[in-house]
């Protein structure tokens, strides 16, 4: 489960076994979690996050989308 980015209390990561899915990122904070597609940036699923936090997470993803996409491509090419 490579961690790609930590921003504030949020940890952005992906699972190696997810490489057969379209590019996406998992986000965790304590026992809260969410999954966002990267193209386009879109919430797929969440547990425990409130709307305000999800909007903040989406802003972080948009601001770092290139980094997240490149990390996905690099890792999944090796998986």
Descriptors:
79 residues; alpha+beta; five-stranded antiparallel sheet; globular
Give structural notes.
- The mean pLDDT is 94.
- The N and C termini lie close together (12 Å).
- The chain has a five-stranded antiparallel β-sheet, with helices on one face.
- It has one domain (3-78).
- 34% of the residues lie in helices and 37% in strands.
- With 79 residues, it is an alpha+beta fold.
- The longest helix has 14 residues, at 65-78.
- It has helices at residues 51-63, 65-78; strands at 3-7, 10-13, 24-29, 32-38, 41-47.
Shape: globular
Distance between the termini: 12 Å
List the secondary-structure elements in sequence, H or E: EEEEEHH
* Total DSSP E strands: 5
Give the topology.
Blueprint: E1 3-7, E2 10-13, E3 24-29, E4 32-38, E5 41-47, H1 51-63, H2 65-78
Antiparallel strand pairs: 1-2, 2-3, 3-4, 4-5
Please sum up the structure shown:
The protein has helices spanning 51-63, 65-78, and strands spanning 3-7, 10-13, 24-29, 32-38, 41-47. The protein is of the alpha+beta class and 79 residues long.
């Amino acid at each position: 489960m490579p961690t790609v980015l930590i921003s504030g209390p949020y940890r952005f990561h992906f699972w190696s076994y997810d490489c057969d899915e379209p590019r996406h990122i998992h986000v965790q904070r304590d026992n809260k979690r969410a999954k966002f597609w990267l193209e386009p940036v879109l919430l797929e699923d969440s547990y425990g996050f409130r709307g305000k936090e999800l909007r903040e997470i989406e802003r972080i993803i948009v601001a770092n989308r290139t980094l997240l996409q490149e990390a996905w491509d690099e890792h999944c090419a090796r998986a």
